[in-house]
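Action item from last meeting closed. Structure (168 res):
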C-alpha cells in the first residue's frame, strides 16, 4: 500500500475568538475542520487555503501554523494544522460539504470525531511554537468502540478511506 498523502486543515475563529468554523461532511456526516489532502507539488499552505475555500466558500489567509501531527497507524496521515483568518466570502456548501457553520467553543456539536476536538483545544491555547506530536487518539480500539456506538458512521468512514464515498 502506498503512503497516504499528507493533509492540511484550517482552524478559523470568529473575530472575538469565541466561535470556530466547522463543516459537516457529506460522505461521513460529522462536523470537522475544513481541509483535505495535499496535491502533488502543492505546499501545505496552498492546500489549506484551497481546501477551506472549496469546503466553506471562504477565502482565507494563514495567521500561523498550529501543528504537525504524525500517524501511529493506517487510520491517519501526516496532518498540518493552520490558524486562518477569513478575508472574504460567505458560507457555501459544495460537493463535499452539507453545512458550514460557526459554533461557540463551549457548545461544539457532539459529532466531532477524534482528533478534531484535540486540534481545536490546542489551537485555542495559542502556543508560541508549532506543536509536533503523534496522533495517538486515533486508535483501532477507539475505532472499534465507535463502531459499536455508531456502526453506519464508521462503515462510511472506512469506505471513504478506500476511496468509496457515499454523498448524501
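Sequence:
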Amino acid at each position: 500500500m502506498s503512503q497516504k498523502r499528507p493533509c492540511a486543515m484550517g482552524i478559523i475563529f470568529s473575530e472575538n475568538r469565541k466561535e470556530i468554523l466547522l463543516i459537516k461532511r457529506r460522505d461521513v456526516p460529522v462536523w470537522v475542520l475544513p481541509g483535505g489532502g495535499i496535491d502533488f507539488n502543492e505546499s501545505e499552505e496552498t492546500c489549506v487555503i484551497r481546501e477551506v475555500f472549496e469546503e466553506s466558500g471562504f477565502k482565507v489567509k494563514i495567521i500561523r501554523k498550529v501543528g504537525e501531527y504524525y500517524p501511529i497507524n493506517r487510520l491517519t496521515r501526516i496532518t498540518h494544522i493552520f490558524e486562518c483568518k477569513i478575508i472574504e466570502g460567505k458560507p457555501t456548501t459544495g460537493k463535499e460539504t452539507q453545512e458550514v457553520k460557526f459554533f461557540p467553543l463551549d457548545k461544539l456539536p457532539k459529532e466531532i470525531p477524534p482528533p478534531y476536538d484535540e486540534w481545536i483545544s490546542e489551537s485555542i491555547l495559542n502556543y508560541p511554537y508549532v506543536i509536533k506530536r503523534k496522533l495517538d487518539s486515533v486508535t483501532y480500539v477507539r475505532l472499534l468502540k465507535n463502531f459499536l456506538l455508531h456502526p453506519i458512521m464508521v462503515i462510511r468512514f472506512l469506505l471513504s478511506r478506500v476511496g468509496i464515498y457515499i454523498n448524501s
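Note appended to the action item: Helices lie at 44-56, 116-124, 140-149, 151-161.
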